[in-house]
């Protein structure tokens, strides 16, 4: 370069960063270029200068006015994928690289030469062939002849790839740590981390998988650039020593580097999957806690078989460290949230969570015009157990009670421990209020009262329940809770071990619980109770085969009360025993009276409550009722609940066999809603199953209900039992049941429950 050229460079660099060394390199390159351009030869001194320039790690090159290389030192050759001068000299960037980069170089260089003005510290990216992208800090200075005319340019470029990578990683790390500090969503943090790593490498895609709480399966954390179908196929994969790279790394707790998937036995079961998506290498590193426990895995996938570079493994080490911080922070947040909203003893939601969740549930129910049922549960004898066996035993009792409640409830239900021995159950999405829930709650009470082993001793704990329904019994959380609590307290007053439905609206006079109990006792002894009867019809012929006896209470002030309004009270107080005996004798007497009138004989079905069934006097009472009324035993059927039968199968079997010896028919009522063991069902002396009305309501349009109904009918046929469906209200339901092989039907489609005179009229017409 001429002295004028150097002076030009100095003027352009006034106040800049270009140092004296750079200018001396420019001068040396200028000398080589002028020699090559004007003399066409390189003498000894020039050759030495060239050798010196080849030892410099920075690119030093000279281009002509058309941006074609005239000189390139060894660093320039290597950066452009060449080994000899001849591979580069005389060529432009358009001939050796991608067009987009070449256009950028050409545009800048032509402006420098046109304006005869140097540019310093230009950041340029370069990718030649299959090489990884590199970054260079470039100075480009116009080259002039002795007359000051621009005849080309000189470029000096320093590799700043590592610096750029370190800056990007530092910036990315800072961003990620800020995201963690701001408590952003874990999925967002992990995705940002994956994209940061992918931005620093070429041809690889990253994945983060999270190990579940049980330490058994991996779930997607972030893999934005892996095929979504592949992510879906490996979602939830179980870890193990031969489960690809990630499953094996999580199992072993150390990195698993697979350089060729097709040749590695750990991928033997997943070769087809890898080939489908073009993966040939996968390097997985476990994400660990500070204590060395596995939280998940960080993996890099490539489409060519190879080992990872040191740079790539450094990136992985950074990524697993930050991922570990983010995941542990999330786990800590989850634990804090759980502790704030859950009872530490039972793990159930606490009062705080209950109010938050119930508020949402009530809002949704209000929008959808549905009911929400709230059950307030209080253990009856908890204090005695706590005092006699100690607080440790009391805590274990509460844990076991909570476990039984969770086993009983469904995914949409909510079980809460309010404190002490008080629990609340919430049943959302109810279409008909508490009517559908009461049978389940009676089953729950029976389940909670079963003996449990605590501190080496057998302990039983009964409970009292109170029920309130939204919106009938309150439209706010406090109102519902207070009314359910009041109903529960009434159950306590009535002798404990019972269930009461809040009656604030149905009894404006607010009859005291004790008064109600005395009224029911008087009703049983007096003439306030009566029976209605609902026909049971042969599904094929339409002939009346039997009737079901249904008790009613004609209350002197409240009018006719359906069974649901007083049977729970009778169950809770033990009055169900005299009430059940009254129903049994009255039903037998009436059936015999119809026969005396010469009407076609029918079977009369009488419901037996769980408490009646467990009464040792039951068999004797049935024998006495048949004897007193003169009814042939074959015309009496006792309907038993699944729950009553399954509480103690050995005792139940003995009672049922004794009843069978009397000649009485037995059926399982509301079949499908309880816990009947099918293996036990085969050994029980049962004549038929009575399909619960909940399976009939949606027939025949609901596919799930139809499948269940068909399965129950098929089960009865397999066991050679009769099958009757209750709650049949439409011709479509009847036709479906008839086509499915159901024997008998009962419901409003044929007749509502009627008095004895109504049944007499129906039988006369049939006769």
Tell me what the structure shows.
The protein has 767 residues and is an alpha+beta fold. Helices cover 45% and strands 22% of the residues. The strands form 5 sheets. It has an 8-stranded mixed β-barrel with strand order 19-20-22-23-24-25-26-27, surrounded by 4 helices. Strands 8-7-6-11-10-9 form a 6-stranded antiparallel beta sheet. Helix 22 (618-629) runs parallel beside helix 24. The longest helix is centred in the middle third of the chain and has 32 residues, at 310-341. The model is unreliable at 1-18, 38-43 and 505-513 (pLDDT under 50).
Kindly summarize this structure in a few lines:
The chain is α+β, with helices and mostly antiparallel strands. The termini are far apart.
What keyword list fits this structure?
767 residues; alpha+beta; 28 helices; 27 strands; elongated; disordered N terminus
Instruction: Estimate the strand proportion.
Output: 15-25%
Q: What is the radius of gyration computed over CA atoms, rounded to a whole number of angstroms? A: 43 Å
Sheet with the most strands, sense and barrel status:
8 strands, mixed, barrel
What's the total number of strands? 27
Low-confidence stretches: 1-18, 38-43, 505-513
Structural class: alpha+beta
* Widest β-sheet, arrangement of strands: 19-20-22-23-24-25-26-27
Straight-line N-to-C gap: 128 Å
């Amino acid at each position: 370069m001429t002295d004028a050229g150097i002076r030009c460079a100095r003027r352009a660099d006034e106040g800049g960063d270009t140092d004296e060394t750079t200018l001396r390199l420019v001068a040396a390159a200028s000398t080589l270029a002028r020699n090559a351009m004007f003399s066409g030869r390189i003498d000894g001194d020039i050759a030495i200068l060239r050798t010196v320039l080849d030892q410099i790690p920075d690119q030093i090159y000279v281009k002509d006015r058309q941006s074609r290389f005239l000189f390139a030192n060894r660093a320039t050759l290597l950066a452009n994928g060449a080994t000899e001068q001849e591979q580069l000299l005389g060529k432009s960037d358009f001939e050796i690289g991608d067009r987009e980069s070449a256009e950028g170089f050409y545009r800048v260089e032509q402006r420098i030469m046109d304006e005869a003005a140097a540019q310093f510290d230009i950041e340029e990216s370069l990718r030649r062939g299959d090489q990884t992208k590199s970054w260079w800090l470039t100075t480009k200075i116009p080259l002039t002849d002795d007359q000051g005319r621009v005849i080309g340019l000189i470029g000096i470029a320093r590799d700043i790839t590592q610096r750029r990578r370190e800056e990007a990683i530092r910036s990315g790390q800072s961003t990620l740590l800020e995201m963690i500090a701001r408590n952003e969503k874990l999925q967002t943090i992990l995705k940002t981390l994956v994209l940061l790593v992918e931005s620093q490498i070429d041809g690889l895609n990253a994945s983060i998988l999270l190990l579940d709480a049980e330490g058994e399966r991996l779930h997607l954390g972030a893999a934005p650039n892996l095929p979504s179908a592949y992510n879906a196929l490996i979602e939830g994969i179980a870890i193990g020593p031969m489960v690809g790279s990630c499953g094996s790394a999580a199992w072993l707790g150390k990195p698993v580097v697979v350089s060729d998937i097709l040749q590695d036995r750990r991928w033997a079961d997943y070769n087809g999957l890898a080939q489908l998506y073009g993966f040939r290498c996968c390097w997985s590193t476990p994400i660990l806690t500070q204590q060395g426990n596995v939280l998940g895995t960080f993996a890099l996938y490539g489409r060519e078989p190879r080992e990872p570079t040191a740079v790539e493994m450094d990136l992985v080490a950074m990524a697993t460290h930050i991922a570990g911080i983010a995941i542990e922070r999330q786990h800590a947040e989850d634990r804090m949230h759980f502790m704030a909203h859950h009872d530490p003893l039972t793990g159930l939601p606490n009062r705080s969570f209950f109010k938050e969740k119930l508020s949402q549930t009530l809002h949704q129910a209000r929008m959808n015009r549905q009911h929400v049922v709230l059950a307030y549960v209080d253990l009856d004898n908890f204090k005695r157990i706590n005092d006699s066996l100690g607080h440790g035993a009391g805590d274990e009792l509460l844990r076991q009670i909570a476990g039984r409640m969770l086993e009983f409830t469904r995914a949409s239900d909510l079980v809460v421990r309010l404190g002490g021995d008080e629990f609340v159950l919430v049943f959302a999405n109810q279409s008909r209020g508490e009517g559908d829930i009461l049978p389940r709650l009676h089953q729950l009470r029976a389940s909670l009262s079963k003996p449990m082993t605590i501190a080496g001793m057998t302990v039983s704990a009964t409970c009292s329940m109170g029920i309130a329904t939204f919106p009938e019994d309150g439209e706010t959380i406090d109102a519902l809770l207070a009314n359910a609590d009041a109903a529960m307290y009434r159950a306590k007053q009535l002798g404990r071990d019972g269930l009461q439905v809040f009656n604030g609206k149905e009894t404006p006079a607010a009859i005291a619980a004790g008064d109600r109990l005395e009224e029911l006792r008087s009703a049983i002894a007096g003439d306030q109770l009566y029976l209605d009867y609902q026909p049971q019809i042969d599904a094929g012929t339409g002939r009346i085969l039997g009737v079901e006896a249904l008790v009613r209470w004609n209350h002197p002030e409240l009018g006719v009360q359906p069974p649901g309004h007083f049977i729970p009270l009778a169950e809770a107080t033990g009055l169900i025993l005299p009430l059940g005996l009254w129903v049994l004798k009255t039903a037998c007497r009436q059936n015999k009276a119809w026969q005396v009138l010469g009407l076609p004989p029918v079977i009369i079905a009488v419901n037996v409550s769980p408490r009646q069934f467990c009464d040792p006097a039951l068999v004797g009472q049935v024998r006495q009722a048949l004897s007193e009324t003169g009814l042939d035993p074959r015309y009496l059927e006792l309907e038993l609940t699944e729950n009553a039968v399954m509480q103690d199968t050995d005792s139940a079997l003995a009672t049922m066999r004794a009843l069978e010896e009397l000649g009485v028919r037995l059926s399982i009522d509301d079949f499908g809603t309880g816990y009947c063991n099918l293996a036990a069902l085969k050994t029980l002396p049962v004549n038929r199953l009575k399909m619960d009305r909940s399976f009939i309501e949606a027939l025949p349009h609901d596919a799930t209900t139809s499948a269940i109904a068909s399965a129950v009918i098929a089960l009865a046929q397999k066991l050679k039992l009769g099958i009757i469906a209750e709650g049949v209200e439409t011709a479509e339901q009847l036709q479906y049941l008839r086509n499915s092989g159901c024997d008998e039907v009962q419901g409003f489609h044929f007749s509502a429950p009627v008095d004895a005179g109504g049944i007499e009229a129906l039988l006369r017409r049939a006769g």
